[in-house]
Write a structure and sequence with these properties.
There is one protein chain. With about 130 residues, the protein is an alpha+beta fold. The chain has a single domain, classed as Nuclear Transport Factor 2, Chain: A, CATH 3.10.450.40. The chain is built from 3 helices and 6 strands. Strands 3, 4, 5 and 6 form a 4-stranded antiparallel beta sheet that branches. A two-stranded antiparallel ribbon has the order 1-2. Strand 4 and strand 5 form a beta hairpin. The longest helix has 18 residues.
Length: about 130
């Protein structure tokens, strides 16, 4: 089975026009675009209010071990619920501090289901940003 049949094809976000139209992507580019939307979504969807990682619930928490555990669990739960094309485990999500005192780096190692294709998605969680 081809990777396109598993991941599908679509337009990535942010939309970039090439020759007046958005290019159609597939594979890891499409998956990582979907993960980016999932992690950055902050407006409740009308018929799907639970969509997203809900990072805004953690903005007032101190940067400590509890925040790291909560962040990993929110990411894992959202990916399992809203991105069925990939597999992740608690061990495949790493949260670590960055050089910025108000930022944590979230790294998700994933594999695309029914393939041998693996990828890595990195997301900077910044406590000063509104999600």
């Amino acid at each position: 089975m081809s990777l396109d049949k598993i991941t599908g094809k679509g337009i990535t976000y942010p939309i970039v026009l090439v020759g007046g139209k958005p290019p159609i992507e597939s594979g890891t580019d499409l998956i990582e675009s979907s993960l980016s939307v999932l992690f950055n979504w902050d407006i409740p969807k009308v018929l799907h209010p639970e969509f997203g990682v809900k990072l805004n619930t953690l903005l007032s928490e101190p940067l400590d071990v509890i925040l790291v555990v909560l962040l990993k669990q929110l990411c894992l739960d959202a990916i399992i619920m809203f991105e069925p094309r990939i597999s992740v485990s608690p061990e495949s999500i790493t949260v670590s501090p960055t050089q910025n005192i108000n930022e944590l780096s979230v790294i998700v190692d994933y594999s695309i289901n029914n393939t041998l294709v693996k990828g890595t998605f990195t997301f900077p969680f910044n406590k000063n940003k509104s999600y």
